[in-house]
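Worked example 4.2. Below are the chains of a multi-component assembly; read each line carefully before continuing.
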Amino acid sequence: DQQVKQNSPSLSVQEGRISILNCDYTNSMFDYFLWYKKYPAEGPTFLISISSIKDKNEDGRFTVFLNKSAKHLSLHIVPSQPGDSAVYFCAAGETGANSKLTFGKGITLSVRP
Amino acid sequence: SAVISQKPSRDICQRGTSLTIQCQVDSQVTMMFWYRQQPGQSLTLIATANQGSEATYESGFVIDKFPISRPNLTFSTLTVSNMSPEDSSIYLCSARQKWNTEAFFGQGTRLTVV
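Applying the procedure described above to all two chains together yields the following structure tokens:
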């Protein structure tokens, strides 16, 4: 049973436009969420996170929105740049001493020049 | 943040052999984890490496197949034992502080079993 779902395997956008990456979760105990970016042959790098007490968190070109009632979050990248082309993973966790992250399958974002 | 060095970065191994992957963190961390990423799949947690005690394994993973050591707060190893082609995957080390939600990753070890 996949608790974190990224249903779209890929997304292609034009440089300068907005990229919207979606993520759904099923476990209502998750209380924080993270986005990671992964280039080929590298490990995932942390991008941005959000706590369940918030509905929005912004860091430069990256904004994450959380809709708890819908169990849905999204990552907005604006403006998109060719260097943003990578695989983006959504992850969720439950606060606790041994909390571990549950990851989605990832979305491959391609930003066309 | 933490910088995590993982080695080897890749290896091709014969079936039936074992490979030990090392993970070194540049600072003391409370929690270390080992993940596996199979082609086209998400990152799947293998186990939590506990300092000074046995690792905590997730469902579907056992100590005999994936023995883990964590002798101190900056270092851990994962061994993939008696390998078969189904073990071909990317193995990732991760670390975070207990009070932080943010986890950091090594660059991964791409394992191919032939």
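Take a moment to check your reading of the output against the notes. Chain A touches chain B through 27 residues (CB under 8 Å). Chain A has a mean pLDDT of 94.
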